[in-house]
Amino acid sequence: MRMFTAELVGTALLILLGNGVVAGVLLAKSKAEKSGWIVITTGWALAVAMGVYAVGRISGAHLNPAITLSLAAVGKLPWSQVPAYLAGQLLGAFLGAVLVWLAYLAHWSATEDRNLKLLVFSTAPAIRRLSANVVTEIIGTFVLTFGVLALGANKAPNDTGLTPLLVGFLVWAIGLSLGGPTGYAINPARDLAPRIAHAILPIPGKGGSDWGYAWVPIVGPLVGGVIGAVAYVGLFGA
Fold first, then answer.
1. Using one digit for the tens of pLDDT, what is the confidence trace for 127-173?
2. Which of 105, 124, 163, 207 is deepest in the core (most CB within 10 A)?
3. Contact status, residue 89 vs residue 65, Cβ threshold 8 Å
């Protein structure tokens, strides 16, 4: 239960701050409207760092099913703990999305573009080519998992408490370098649970939730995460 609660709280904080910066940039009449990709990637980097700082000492702050399954696949997490982690992440991501909806409650009706409203909650490709989109998500999550394991293996930043900030920098780098094609979900919970929230919440003038694309930010990160973990352990050991 402790691990479930930690992952729920950490993931909710991640989504509140991460999807919150997207809402600020995209929704009409926000003071951050049209401030751009650098603001979004920076906001997500800080969101990840804060989520990891918040619950890292309790659960390790996976905040991402791809990380959880990857660590289990290479023997760094007992499979018996996986369901609690996944449940906490999905429920936390849904809760975070609901909080973003509430925080920007006055801006949904002011925003005419239904696609922008969906993008606050979930990712979408710049060029819709599903095979290429999956590859992008695989590569991005490979870098994430490989990088997280590499950072965790460095004793000095762990001892000084810098590792969560460095994980945020890693996500910042992924967003800047690899985020352009798909919006870098690199986290199934980050995309799926807020997409469900979009489908359920009474958002004025919203369109569909694009379920035809929803499998891409689930399958791509899960595959890329496992490959990244296996590659790191295979090259450098546990």
1. 999 999 999 999 999 999 999 999 999 888 888 889 999 999 999 99
2. 163
3. yes
